[in-house]
Amino acid sequence: MLTGLYLITDDNSDGNLLKRVKEALLGGARTVQYRAKYQSPTDRIIMAELLHAACRDTGAKLIINDFPELAKEIDADGVHLGQDDMSISEARQLLGRDKLIGVSTHSVDEALKAESHGADYVALGSVFATDTKDDAKVVGIDTL
């Protein structure tokens, strides 16, 4: 179960990601989603392990965005999948029943489909326009 503040990281372009995440954890973040689409596989693994240790130290959960294999490798608490990523059933088979699987959705139909396929939680968005994601589909407050 996910409770409390859910932090989604950026791509660590300034080199201060670990410091910022530790500060967020001290400030009350209970879940960290490590989102690193543009990092090298080696850098991604190193940072994921550091973030996992920081989360364990504070009792928070670490969710890996888009990379179920990495989540399994470092024994993260789960994975967050996009619509074009591995299927929920494949991720469940890889990670097991005790890991969390979340899915990004852009409509009520996608959210219901994710739930019916075994997602533990869904994210809906973007509710508002954002400069942080070039391909964000704005669904608006009514859909939420």
Structure description:
This protein has 144 residues and is α/β, with parallel strands linked by helices. The protein has one domain: TIM Barrel (Alpha-Beta Barrel). Helix content is 39%, strand content 20%. It has a six-stranded parallel sheet. β4, α4 (88-95) and β5 form a beta-alpha-beta unit. α1 (17-26) runs parallel beside α2 (41-58). The protein is globular and about 35 Å long. It starts with a strand and ends with a helix.
> Got a strand count?
6
CATH topology: TIM Barrel
Distance between the termini: 21 Å
- Rg, rounded, reads 15 Å
Strand share of the residues? 15-25%
| The level-1 CATH class | Alpha Beta
CATH architecture: Alpha-Beta Barrel
Name the overall outline: globular
List keywords for this structure.
144 residues; alpha/beta; six-stranded parallel sheet; globular
